[in-house]
Structures
1.
Amino acid sequence: MDFAGSHILSVDQFERADVERIFAVADRMEPYAHRRRVTKVLDGAILGSMFFEPSTRTRVSFGSAFNLLGGEVRETTGFENSAIAKGESLYDTARVLSGYSDVIAMRHPAEGSVAEFAAASRVPVINGGDGSNEHPSQALLDLYTIKSEMAGRGGGIDRLRIAMVGDLRYGRTVHSLCKLLCLFDGVQVVLVSPGELRMPADIVEEMRQAGHQVLESEALEASIAHVDIVYSTRIQEERFSSQEEADLYRGRFRLNQNIYTHHCEPNTVIMHPLPRDSRDHARELDDDLNDNPNLAIFRQTDNGVLVRMALFALILDVADQVDRHARDVNWYTAGRF
Ligand code: CP
């Protein structure tokens, strides 16, 4: 695809070569994301950051990524702080904010809303999550992490064995990740969820059409025994009609160190898009895994900055200029990465 000026709304728009291009640019962002070098390639550019649902990682890492390329960020969070609360349409909001920004990152609770907004925007829009539909930048950072973790184990994304666990019905990260995996070869996927929260049938069918082996299960321990990656997800309580309904499923599939030790292969990578639900009645990924070297969840969050920097660099067509506008940092940076 031609990235320059493009919206990023769904992983459906990518070919395998596009994903590999994003990853190659992300690799080159490492000295900047890890604070050894500073670049001002986006000096003067403005990111409009509009998050109408709660977010820690996606919102802040999009902002950090833009700052690390030398740009500025203007934010709106929550409907209550936006004129949408006064009845303004997405069309008008997009027309207005795209006059103030060079690129926009947006999260919204309604499926298809970011695409509707993008259709009226005068600048590129990146989908930071639209309801339970898609979260393309998360899927990219997840796949970038999988590639990196598997490389350290002598493998790759082709012929990956992965178990996805939890709320596969409403979890937009797993929807986008499954679709992205369809660009690769010979993947074995085990989908572990309560029957009511199964992966949508069209996504399962898309994976089968791609030649992948897909199994669906409600048995955690047997399902994680022979996989390279366990990708755990939170019960998406915000998509349920009540907390009581979400409580029916919370805590159903818990991975902790004891289960990991007894059922997983020794080097199985543990992933989660975060936030994990650390309340006692949930704990889908227990804190007692925190010292497990195969727990990749914070490598995922760090990789989010690299991947989002790459998306900005490609969309704003500066990927080949980043190093020309760079210098070493002045401050002490050792030990964080
Ligand atoms: N993974 C993710 O989307 O996290 P946030 O909700 O904190 O952005």
2.
Amino acid sequence: MSDRLVIFDTTLRDGEQAPGFSMRIEEKIRLARQLERLGVDIIEAGFPISSEDDAESVRRVAQSVTEPVVAALARCATGDVDKAATAIAPARRGRIHTFIATSDLHLEFKLRMTRETCLERAVEAVRRARNATDDVEFSAEDATRSDIDFLCRVVEAVIDAGATTVNLPDTVGYSMPGEIATFFRTVIERVPNADKAIFSAHCHDDLGLAVANTMAAISAGVRQVECTINGIGERAGNASLEEIVMITRVRPDLVPVTSRVVTEQLFESSQMLSDITGQRVQSNKAIVGSNAFAHEAGIHQDGMLKDRRTYEIMRPEDVGAPASSLVLGKHSGRHAVQKACERLGLDLARRDIDEVYRRMTALADQQKHISDDDLRTITDAVLADTRSAAR
Ligand code: MN
């Protein structure tokens, strides 16, 4: 099995569908160009049948990037597939991503369709898409809650019809990691032509397990992952691209796959998305949150000053984030106070440091953050007191 992990970014499609994350066409193009710099393999740029604006976005993104494949989403319906085909036509490499739900719950209550009709629609749509492009992805919506025998029949049939990627989404974020690994292993083992397609995971974060489930899927043989910048997406979001990629970089001993993502572009990608949508990530967000490389506790700051590996498993520069910061606050220690004074060009005697430290922690009890100006004010006062005592 290949050790190459294909990164399918759906920030502009699944991500953009979430409340508060809609983007204008020019903003989507700006982000698509950043995704190209980031080195993602596939950009899912929209769902052309859903609106003329979406169709136009896909077409413009297809014209604006050269390296990544540009994908358009389509239900398993003639009009959808044709609209997607038109939208990706300007792309150097275009993909049609066609989907239909396979779970009985969705078939009975949403689509009001039999399993047999579902199977026929899937095969027809994949065939039609293959007439427009060699790169066709099929998704079985709600795959993880589908009857496994039926799902395997659908997967075999769509691969026969020409699907080159088979995506099995955990549409509602219901699975657990061990379960999803067994699920993918079972499908890949049971489908006789499974070796003719790349299997893909698309995990949602309703229970906070999207990234864990994605990693479990990789361990079971999945070689494409669908993800978004900052983990945005429907409801609680999709698997976070930056987290998946950094797990593969930090733990190659356990995750034997590599992507072509330029990790130094991760922070910039996250920031650009936040700027465009006006939605900040929480400060404790892994990889790109403002606290991801910040340390306030005294013991941690002391460890960091002696050797950063004591409390950091990756370097901020590896993800393009600003340098690690030792934040002064009520949990900080003398060592960090001394370093902060040195950084401000203040050379203090040992006992003055002790007094600055005492006054800093007292102030930190009143206010959460100690700025450089606060530290200068404290230091000036301590030095003035020391001088008058010596007189
Ligand atoms: Mn989704």
